[in-house]
Amino acid sequence: MSLTKIIDLEPGDARLADGLLPVLRELRPHLTEDLFREVYERGYGQGLRFSAAYDDRGVCVGAAGWRVVDTTSQIRKLYVDDLVTTEGARSTGVGRKLLGYLEERAREAGCRYLSLDSGTHRTDAHRFYLRERLDIVAFNFDKALDSD
Q1: CATH number at residue 124
Q2: DSSP state of 58
């Protein structure tokens, strides 16, 4: 298996549900097709984009959700919401190529940083990020809000 292309998918593209979503669900199992469509349609106006990595058979083997944001702390950065490779394609270079693609997009957009958060339990992902020369620079704190 070799990676042949990485493409950006717009809301409404059938490949989102047919190819990208099954890959993304390996990281985000709570996503249904309807919920994913709703999130992407709302998020698109906020800069959310999805990129899909396809192998030489035309099968989606990697997915990235990302956006360019301006902040006071890092000025302009490409923030990676989601980065996942299918279990069967891990350690084949797909993740590295997706990350390289995102770095290129960040540079094109004038970003100073590429940034992502990773769950504390995802130790294999952390090893990958450290190997790819990402640094641990902050803690992320969350508070669940009542939905009433």
Answers
A1: 3.40.630.30
A2: S
